């Protein structure tokens, strides 16, 4: 059985985690936790770098900007906070009227979107953050996740408990709705921007990231809370109610591997930018980093074995 790197430090369930983009210094992980203390870690070995101090309630989501110099956290204390990742300082605190579940940077780091129990999306310009640029209604219940399109800085996607993914064009004011069979629990874009990956109920759906048509839908034998696609699109991970992190073949949906170790439901999982590892966060209060390269080595050695076997037969 694969042995993960166990990252302790949080005292309550880990609700979200995100990797930074790769840089000359490697990559980082920022984690959100119901203990109200988001943490910054080394993305390769999980070593603790620092804790962002200032929230007075559970933190539900965490995200980096494109160069990892800043991080966003959304909290049950009715705020979204912007942090300096170099010194841990609080740069900005945006007040809301209720619990905030999600926040995300735009592609060029100049705007953010937030959402939560208010059932509206707020758009802020970080150069003039005192008043929201826009407040967008549409959802009928809690917004759990919101993000910017990887193709258009005027398009926002959001999903939540009303079982609908809404795609909103800020310029035209138009909205498009993608219906699911259960509340939307997670969303991410693939590394190559080809797919939007969403989870709802026991389903993982891969949508075309430009026209939002469904490409693949896989029903799994457990409640799926999170999923992430490998950077080369060969496989994906999924976690949820059964405490395990599963690895599946992207093309067939067949299970490749099961990673056991968490002692509670898996709330979040992400592949590292280079695909050599993936991280998972759980209700058990830990983050675990699993080395994906073990799978790669096995697959490569199997391919080599079959190739040699074929050559022997041909001889």
TrEMBL record:
CDD domains documented for this protein: WD40
The cellular component terms of Gene Ontology attached to this UniProt record, alphabetical and capped at eight, are: SMN complex
Q: Does the keyword Repressor apply?
A: no
Q: Which GO terms describe its molecular function?
A: RNA binding
- List this protein's GO terms for biological process: spliceosomal snRNP assembly
Output the SUPFAM superfamilies linked to this UniProt entry: WD40 repeat-like (SSF50978)
Write the record's keywords in alphabetical order, separated by commas: mRNA processing, mRNA splicing, Repeat, WD repeat
The WD repeat boundaries are: 52-93, 136-178, 259-290
Q: Which domain of life is it from?
A: Eukaryota
Q: Where is the signal peptide?
A: none
What protein family is recorded? Belongs to the WD repeat STRAP family.
Can you say what this protein is called?
A: Serine-threonine kinase receptor-associated protein
**Lineage, opening ranks:** Eukaryota, Amoebozoa, Evosea, Eumycetozoa, Dictyostelia
């Amino acid at each position: 059985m694969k042995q993960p790197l166990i990252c302790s430090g949080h005292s309550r369930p880990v609700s979200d985690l995100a990797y930074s983009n790769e840089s000359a210094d490697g990559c980082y992980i920022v984690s959100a936790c119901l203990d109200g203390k988001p943490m910054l870690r080394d993305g390769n070995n999980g070593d603790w770098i620092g804790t962002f101090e200032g929230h007075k309630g559970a933190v539900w989501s965490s995200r980096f900007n494109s160069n990892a110099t800043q991080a966003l956290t959304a909290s049950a204390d009715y705020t979204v906070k912007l942090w300096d990742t170099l010194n841990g300082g609080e740069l900005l605190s945006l007040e809301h009227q209720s619990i905030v579940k999600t926040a995300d940077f735009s592609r060029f780091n100049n705007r953010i979107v937030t959402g939560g129990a208010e059932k509206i999306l707020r758009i802020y310009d970080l150069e003039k953050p005192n008043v929201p640029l826009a407040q967008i209604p549409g959802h009928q219940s809690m917004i759990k996740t919101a993000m910017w399109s990887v193709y258009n800085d005027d398009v926002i996607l959001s999903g939540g408990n009303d079982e609908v993914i809404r795609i909103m064009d800020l310029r035209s004011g138009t909205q498009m709705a993608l219906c699911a069979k259960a509340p939307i629990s997670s969303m991410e874009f693939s590394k190559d921007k080809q797919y939007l990956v969403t989870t709802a109920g026991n389903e993982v759906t891969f949508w075309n990231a430009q026209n939002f048509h469904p490409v693949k839908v896989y029903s799994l034998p457990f409640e799926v809370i999170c999923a992430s696609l490998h950077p080369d699109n060969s496989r994906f991970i999924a976690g949820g109610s059964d405490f395990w992190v599963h690895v599946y073949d992207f093309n067939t949906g067949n299970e490749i591997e099961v990673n056991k170790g968490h002692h509670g439901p898996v709330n979040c999982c992400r592949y590292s930018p280079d695909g050599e590892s993936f991280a998972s966060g759980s209700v058990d209060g830990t983050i675990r980093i699993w080395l994906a390269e073990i799978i790669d080595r096995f697959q490569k050695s199997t391919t080599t074995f079959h190739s040699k076997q074929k050559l022997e037969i041909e001889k």
